[in-house]
Amino acid sequence: MTDTAPLLTARGLVREFTLRGRAGAFGRRPVLRAVDGVDLDLYPGETLALVGESGSGKSTTARLAARLLDTSAGTVEFEGEDVTRRTGAALHRFRSGVQVVFQDPYSSLNPRHTVERIVTAPLTYQGREVPGGARAFTRALLERVGLDPDHSTRYPAQFSGGQAQRIGIARALAVGPKVVICDEAVSALDVSVQAQVINLLRRLQREEGLSYLFIAHDLAVVRQLADRVAVMHQGKVVESGDRDAVFGAPEHEYTRTLLAAVPRIRPEWEAARRARQREREATA
Amino acid sequence: MTTPLLEVQDLTIAFPTPGGGSAEVVSELGFALPPGGSLGIVGESGSGKSMTSLAVMGLLPKGARLAGRIRLAGEDIAGLPDRRMRAIRGDRIAMVFQDPLSSLNPYYAVGFQIEEAYRAHRPRATRREARRVAVEAMERVHIPDAARRAGHYPHQFSGGMRQRVMIAIALSTEPDLLIADEPTTALDVTVQAQILALLREIRRDTGTGLVLITHDLAVVSEMVDDVVVMRAGRCVEHAPVARLFSDPQHAYTRALLDAVPRLDDEVGELRTVRAAAPDTPREGER
């Protein structure tokens, strides 16, 4: 994977937020450095997971990489071009390559717009024509994400949480991106629905060669999806590497603490259950 | 046989629907908890697990219709008048919710809020005694520097520390039964581990009975003796924890366990609940 060039690169990303409140010495307001010198490389066709607890800076990093938030320092490159300060039509070109799926499908979909209007919106904003007309385009998109094409004229409230998240994914795919940034995209879903959406993301990656920057706090989900993992803590990446290395032999103290804290079903119960399951499947 | 601490029989909860009909959110649910025992209720959203806990606390929303029996140490408390339920709630049964910030009053110091909760059930207690109980409760949940922290306001505490304050309030009256409804769902994983350890420690030291409501199968597997799996208002399986996780009987339980992503697992296609239990039509989803 390393002999190809990365699609999306971040170098020395810094983001500071000025805190409200009284100015201190010399009239300076207190500053929070949410992201503190983060480097990332996302290669074609891979999933890079960014994990950490709340306040670690992982979501801010995602927003900087997606150019939804301006950097205080550092650069974002897409396909070898610096996009850190892009605006207007040039920023639109970047957005055609990099899209975002958010955590809460209901609050990220306009409740007063039909599915058709929602998923074609990115093309409309970029002033691009909808290939083959909005109706046919939407039907094809819905099919790709496992939704009924006949539901193009429905509103977000008429869908379950898992379905609404599929609409969010369809909207991200509308512009034909190479990179999809998933910011806690499966965190709000029930376990059964979550499994379906994870499988959908995997299938799309397999079939269309998408790259994912996957932001999550749930380490078990990351274990199932990621090729590589970067662990964030207090604005910095404290450890990164191949999934199995990070999960199997974590080097940083914080990674070890994080992994040890994950609740687990006892392995002996799991083994017994699997053995019974195999027996049932063999006799069936 | 000793009288169960909590016994729920044929519990049915329904809400009127606009068309004049009614919708059952919990149907014919039954379980029993021995004194000092622990029970987990797991299910996905809409399974009726939280409605069940609200029914036990006598906190069902207005308009809810309740049938069946809820016995606390032999006494039927289902549908008890508000005034009598208030005497039980917060005293013999205490509850910890998911979101500590919305359960605490932002305008009062946390120590005062623990004192108030205590004095509501111990009207003869003096201010000084209530203050002592509050600080002791905060020490018991390992809030460092409890005497000083008692004077601080909720926003001055982290999420985990706030949940400790909620547990301190719950424990201040030494309840027989603690109902914890998704107590760690809003917390980071390292903080979750600390709160779960605290709940285990409290059970060991005080013998308080625990009903733990959660969507998280791994959490429930670490915390309780018995598990009830709920789906669409019904109990689909009720078993001791070891048996439920090593030999699940119901197809839904099996499917649920298959769908949980795991840390130490071979990576492959996750089985989905739908595949194993085809009787969940969800409009339009394929």
Structure write-up:
- The complex is a heterodimer of chains A (284) and B (286).
- By secondary structure, chain A is an alpha/beta fold.
- Chain A has one domain (8-283): Rossmann fold.
- Chain A is 39% helix and 23% strand.
- Chain A has helices at residues 58-65, 88-97, 115-125, 134-144, 161-173, 191-208, 219-225, 243-248, 253-261, 267-283; strands at 8-18, 31-42, 47-51, 73-78, 81-82, 98-101, 179-183, 211-216, 228-233, 236-242.
- In chain A, the strands form two sheets. A six-stranded mixed beta sheet of chain A has the order 6-7-8-3-9-10, with helices on both faces. Chain A has a four-stranded antiparallel beta sheet with strand order 2-1-4-5.
- In chain A, strand 9 (228-233) and strand 10 (236-242) form a beta hairpin.
- In chain A, helix 3 (115-125) crosses helix 4 (134-144), helix 3 (115-125) runs parallel beside helix 5 (161-173) and helix 5 runs parallel beside helix 6 (191-208).
- Chain B is α/β, with parallel strands linked by helices.
- Chain B has two domains: 1-92 and 178-252, P-loop containing nucleotide triphosphate hydrolases (Rossmann fold), CATH 3.40.50.300; 100-174, no CATH class.
- Chain B is 37% helix and 23% strand.
- Chain B contains twelve helices and ten strands.
- Chain B has helices at residues 49-57, 82-88, 100-103, 110-121, 127-140, 146-149, 159-171, 189-206, 217-223, 241-246, 251-259, 273-276, and strands at residues 6-16, 22-33, 38-42, 65-72, 75-76, 93-96, 177-181, 209-214, 226-231, 234-240.
- In chain B, the strands form two sheets. A six-stranded mixed beta sheet of chain B has the order 6-7-8-3-9-10, sandwiched between helices.
- Chain B is globular.
- Mean pLDDT of chain B is 90; it is low at 275-286.
- At the A-B interface, helix 5, helix 6, helix 7, helix 9 and helix 10 of A face helix 8, helix 9, helix 10 and helix 11 of B.
